User: Which sequence fits this backbone?
């Protein structure tokens, strides 16, 4: 049987995401490659896998989404590195599929393509004033502090005391935590230098996280909430009235929702005593959760250019639990702020007209990772399931797609009898087009430079921010 | 950082078998040649626990704790650990496919296992941080623990650790993760 040549397309990814994050595509891709034994021996003894990635550096959201103060989550890089070192796995960074190489060209050269390019865009609010200055998507803000090259010049406005974050997910909590963390804690992380400097000079003291629904519908998870509650020099502001009636329902909830809600209730209702009371009274920063509010309009300041506040509709809930829906009432509420971040979810783009895409769900239509009506095409990660889930879910998802590929090889549904050219063909095309791919060992040179630069500053690394510089370093 | 930190015990074996295995025999996997530890065939050497060339041949037998892993296909894999081993480590040493993405730092839930009831009760209670991460584990059960937090003692002799099946419907309670 000729070698199965597969290409994992880590083409466009990037999504600034929250912790635990979602190692976007490269991770889904690398998990795809680490196919586990499911008892039947589905390993393939001669599969060759090539990974194409838009940026010169691998790892996707593990590098650009996970917050700088969550280094343990990034340990998974060791596992990915081991996979990437395998003889029959190759990484080609600085190659944009859809621009430098086409899907059609890749289909000619490989037996199977696995699309793992994640969700690079964010959902937009669709309200007036969304484009005022001082209004950013959480995605670009996270990209900014995580050293994503395309966001390095964001230069966000941090000179007002109050910031409002729209959305009750982990990304929102990450942003709030980074905005309010004591600077000495951030100094020791791999946060981008320009962000460290800006946050050190920041005047932001108060962050409100505003969500459309209630406490039982929050999307963030308990670890992140606990971190906010325990954040040094910050006090939580939760309103007891938001939790009326919730205490009764809590005991019947599934465990994760129950523990999370109990923690919120405790933070809202329990009066702290002793040291904790002192700590909170002395805190110079504060953060809060506002429920049942939907953004209607971003209100500009006198100059008409910068955000000064937000008009919110007051909502009520219909239905119960996770599927409860919000309904706007006649009432509105205005809140002042000088910085606004929308954190309402990510979105995938179609990569090529020849690849089916469900615009409504924002995913590639598939069955267990097999792209529908497109033999030889598979998908994995956020572009397969939607932009939700943590490492464990993306990991299992990657495994699922890999198992689908191997099953198809076995059954003959994926025909690998004809030999395919693989990277040799792509290499020639890239050369013609003047593209310099970065290999995994090229990334390791970048890695060494970043770690060395970080050491000087007492940080785990100082990320390179410029793609050209990365390519230069990689080619030395 | 990256390549340098391949720690013993956290091998991510790339499974490339030359020939199909018969039923019931544990996988003898070929390791990435960059790894220094020798390949293990559990059948040929059932009584010694070779971590590396300098492992203690004169191991104190009273330190041995026998446990059984049950993999995702239901296959039972008996393993000899020793007092103080953590289950994730032990799984990796024995080629059991228990992932450990965050390398035992309580920052993920990929090493989620089910512990048999009798031995579950003997384990010290999970700390809050473990409970928080367990909340994220797919198909959580009452006897769920994170493998990296289960440390062997003599009392745990005979413990059975079952790997959760990877199913499409990740959450028993029908919970669907919300968008971030």
Assistant:
């Amino acid at each position: 049987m000729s070698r199965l040549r597969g290409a994992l397309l880590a083409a466009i990814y990037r999504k600034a995401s929250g912790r635990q994050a979602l190692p976007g595509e490269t991770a889904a891709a690398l998990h795809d490659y680490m196919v586990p034994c499911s008892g039947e021996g589905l390993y393939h003894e001669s599969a060759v896998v090539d990974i194409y990635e838009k940026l010169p550096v691998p790892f996707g959201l593990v590098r650009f989404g996970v917050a700088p103060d969550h280094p343990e989550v990034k340990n998974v890089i060791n596992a990915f590195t081991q996979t990437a070192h395998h003889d029959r796995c190759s990484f080609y960074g600085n190659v944009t599929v859809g621009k430098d190489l086409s899907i059609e060209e890749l289909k000619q050269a490989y037996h199977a393509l696995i699309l793992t390019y994640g969700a690079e865009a964010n959902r937009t609010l669709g309200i007036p004033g969304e484009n005022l200055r001082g209004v950013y998507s959480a995605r670009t803000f996270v990209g900014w502090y995580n050293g994503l090259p395309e966001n390095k010049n964001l230069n966000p406005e941090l000179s007002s005391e109050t910031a409002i974050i729209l959305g009750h997910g982990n990304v929102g909590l990450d942003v709030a935590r980074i905005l309010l963390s004591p600077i000495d804690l951030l100094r020791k992380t791999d946060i981008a230098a320009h962000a460290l400097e800006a946050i050190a000079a920041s005047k932001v003291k108060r962050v409100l996280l505003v969500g459309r629904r209630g406490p039982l519908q929050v999307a963030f998870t308990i670890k992140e909430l606990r971190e906010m509650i325990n954040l040094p020099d910050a006090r939580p502001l939760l309103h007891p009235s938001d939790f009326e009636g919730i205490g009764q329902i809590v005991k019947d909830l599934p465990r994760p929702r129950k523990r999370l809600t109990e923690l919120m209730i405790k933070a809202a209702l329990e009066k702290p005593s002793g040291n904790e009371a002192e700590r909170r009274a002395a805190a110079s920063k504060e953060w809060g959760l506002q429920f049942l509010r939907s953004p209607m309009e971003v209100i500009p300041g006198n100059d008409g250019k910068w955000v000064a506040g937000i008009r919110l509709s007051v909502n009520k809930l219909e239905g119960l639990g996770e599927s409860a829906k919000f309904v706007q009432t006649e009432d509105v509420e205005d809140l002042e702020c000088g910085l606004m971040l929308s954190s309402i979810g990510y979105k995938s783009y179609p990569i090529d007209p020849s690849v089916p895409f469900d615009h409504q769900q924002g995913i590639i239509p598939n069955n267990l990772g097999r792209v529908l009506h497109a033999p030889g095409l598979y998908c994995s990660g956020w572009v397969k399931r939607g932009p939700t889930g943590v490492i464990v879910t993306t990991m299992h998802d990657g495994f699922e797609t890999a198992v689908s590929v191997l099953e198809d090889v076995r059954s003959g549904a994926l025909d690998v009898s004809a030999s395919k050219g693989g990277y040799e063909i792509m290499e020639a095309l890239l050369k013609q087009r003047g593209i310099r791919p970065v290999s995994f060992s090229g990334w390791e040179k970048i890695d060494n430079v970043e770690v060395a630069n970080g050491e000087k500053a007492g940080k785990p690394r100082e990320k390179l921010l410029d793609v050209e510089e990365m390519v230069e370093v990689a080619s030395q | 950082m990256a390549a340098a930190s391949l720690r013993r015990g956290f091998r991510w074996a790339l499974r490339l078998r030359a020939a199909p295995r018969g039923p019931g025999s544990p996988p003898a996997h070929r390791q990435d040649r960059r790894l220094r530890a020798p390949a293990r065939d559990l059948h040929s050497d059932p009584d010694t626990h070779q971590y590396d060339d300098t492992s203690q041949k004169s191991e104190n037998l009273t330190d041995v704790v026998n446990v059984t892993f049950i993999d995702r296909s239901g296959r039972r894999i008996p393993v000899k650990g020793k007092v103080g081993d953590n289950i994730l480590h032990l799984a990796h040493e024995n080629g059991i496919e228990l992932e450990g993405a965050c390398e035992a730092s309580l920052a993920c839930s990929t090493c989620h296992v089910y512990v048999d009831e009798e031995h579950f009760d003997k384990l010290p209670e999970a700390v809050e941080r473990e409970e928080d991460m367990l909340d994220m584990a797919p198909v959580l059960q009452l006897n769920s623990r994170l493998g990296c937090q289960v440390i062997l003692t003599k009392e745990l002799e005979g413990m059975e650790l079952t790997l959760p099946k990877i199913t499409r419907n990740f959450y028993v309670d029908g919970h669907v993760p919300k968008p971030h």
Observations:
- The CA atoms of residues 139 and 172 of chain B lie 5 Å apart.
- Confidence is low (pLDDT under 50) at residues 1-55, 168-180 of chain B.
- Helices of chain B lie at 87-93, 117-120, 128-134.
